[in-house]
Amino acid sequence: MKHTCHCSCGSSLNRRQFLTGASACLGGVSFIFSDRLSFAETDKTGAMKVRLIFAAHGEVQDRADWPNIGFDFDPVMKKMKDALNANVEGIEFVSSMSTGAEQTQQILEEDAKRGDIAGYMVAQMNCWNQVVHVALTSTKPVLYYDFLYAGSGGYLAYTAQALQDPGVTNFAHISSESFDDVVEAAKAFQLIKAGKSTAEFVQAVTDYRIAHTKRIESFDCLEHNVSCLSPDELLKALRGCKILAIEKPWVDLEKQAMDDFGIEVVRLGFDQLNEEWEKADRDEAAKIVAHWKETAEAIVDVSEEVLMDSARMYIAERELMKKQNAQGITVDCLGGFYGGHIHAYPCLGFSELCNQGLIGGCECDIRSALTMLILSKMTGGQTGFISDPVLDISTKTIIYAHCVASYRAFGPNGSTNPYTIMTHSEDRQGAAVRSTLPVGYMTTTVEICPITKQILFHQAKAVGNSTNDRACRTKLVAEVVGDFEKLYTQWGNWGWHRVTVYGDLKKEIFALADAIGYKIVEEA
What is the span of the domain harbouring residue 169? Predict the structure, then answer.
């Protein structure tokens, strides 16, 4: 899976693991050094040199990953480098590209021979290129930047790991859709030029980030009263429920799900899903496709054949759940589709299941599917939206992004919101959903982890939907309630996925935690 952080809940990396864990990353890729990036040079005679490393697969993306296959990084990287050199006085940014740890180590070795590199700036352009880990071993000041909707998964996980590691003292970071913020943060290198310490450099970036994180004056929200089950009623409703996990899950929660909630997790193979797909009634599939054509705002770059395959996949998911008497299904969709084990993305089927209050969960992530099932039973059918979030200080927003989302955000009996059928974003294949989710409402985001007996929790007001072409199709933009800085700390422990549901469910989530003896981890 190219876009998923497989950090298990409750785990963290020690310093040795964090700083050297990248050593096993991608090999066999030709080394790309600074002369490959033929940007216009700026005359900065006497300037202190900072190595700018773009953590990316290549100048043009050749694989399915954020932001998307075929993405041309060259003009983006040129613009970044030119902006830094034009606006950060006294600092010359010398650029390189690296796909991972091995190439980054070569850059550091070359820089040691040069002897004139005083610091590093790492721009995370794809999600999981492990570059910053090696840069931090240099002991020189390191500024880490997220190219939003592109490197965000790695940025969040690696930032959390670095912040939690007391041995890492040269790390500063910035995540903003406004590159002006990045330029201003980079001016902290001027402190190093002036003889100040690395600690002062880190503090300057931190101070800037906090000061320029947008302040939200009001969280007045539209009314959405959710009638929720009490903890006792909820636990009773969950007993006997079942989630199907197709192929290998991220984390095995079978025993804990049964012990704590009475939920059975049943492991099945791609072959059983494919068997149902092959048998799916073509006439029924055609009616489903006709419904999508009638109700979607638009269908973009998705053929009739792909729609039929997706409708048959929905039927397969539904029928497999009926046979197993299950209320949810989660599929290793990326591994299955990329590996040729399944013949259609399950995304449209997941959306249809969630519209009905059932669970269609991405990437065989049992923990998130479990969370969705608990939320659905608690709220009368609001399954929530599983996502890969992005953080933006310029708007104090968290952007919940995925290629699957219900278009009945308020549950099966709620209103239908607009949606568009598009290709799956990363590889521009198959069919997925861009759901234009309701705005103006408070949302509650949780992850429930039976392994550590914890519930991760934060809230945010939905304020918009991003149509940025980078990253996943559905992107709900929400203003964070609470301490935005604290949001950077949990991704190394909990992984990337979160589940967001409409409504202020703080009281209900805390009551559930008390009833089952779980601890609330307040993420913001």
Answer: 15-211
